[in-house]
Design a protein that fits this description.
With 170 residues, the protein is mainly β. The protein has a single domain, classed as Clam (outer membrane lipoprotein receptor (LolB), chain A). It is 12% helix and 53% strand. It has a twelve-stranded mixed beta sheet with strand order 7-8-9-10-11-1-2-3-4-5-6-12. A hairpin with a 3-residue loop joins strand 3 and strand 4. The longest helix is centred in the first third of the chain and has 14 residues. The N terminus is likely disordered. This is LolA-like outer membrane lipoprotein chaperone. Pfam families: LolA (PF03548). Keywords: Signal.
Length: 170
């Protein structure tokens, strides 16, 4: 019986996806290259496997992007506006990671909505995510101080639109 239990645990650990998280949060630097131009963003994000996410951009301008199952809300402080859009097939980072397949020791690949994501691990957590979006922009997200499977309170994902901001619905 002990051997059977050991084999079951071993099989699970071999086939389990090390990128399947209940939550992931991190500081990030995102470089977007389009033709000759390049823009660098930085901030932090919080993602839960239940389709809730918040990306907080500090540079080059302050912005918060909230994701739910059905909507994305972008709150742009410099413009004093919030843009509310219906969400269709938006990538959920937790699901992209969970569906990634190992292609080498520290490199995984995930396909989502006709976009190929390459995920590089460092110390068993995502460190870099590279992909080319549908507009042919090359995007590289470098993660720092990654925390996984932490409890992230529901309040973190409550959309906060300051009073007086214009609300644009698309």
């Amino acid at each position: 019986m002990k051997i059977l239990t050991f084999l079951a645990v071993l099989a699970f650990s071999v086939f389990a996806n090390p990128l399947e998280f209940k939550s992931i949060q991190s500081e990030f630097t995102q470089v977007v290259k389009s033709n000759e131009a390049s823009v660098v963003y930085s901030g932090e994000f919080y993602v839960r496997a239940d389709n809730k996410a918040l990306w907080v951009y500090d540079e080059p301008t302050k912005k918060r992007i909230y994701f739910t199952d059905s909507h994305v809300v972008s709150v742009e402080d410099a413009l004093e506006q919030a843009i509310v859009s219906k969400l269709e097939n938006a990538p959920n980072l937790a699901k992209i990671l969970a569906n990634a397949k190992r292609i080498s020791e520290n490199l995984y690949k995930a396909d989502y909505d006709d976009v190929e994501y390459l995920i590089t691990l460092k110390n068993a957590v995502p460190a870099v995510i590279d992909y080319k979006d549908k507009l042919e922009n090359k995007i590289k997200i470098t993660l720092k101080n990654v925390k996984t499977n932490q409890v992230i309170a529901d309040e973190k994902f409550l959309v906060k639109i300051p009073k007086g901001y214009d609300i644009i619905t698309q």
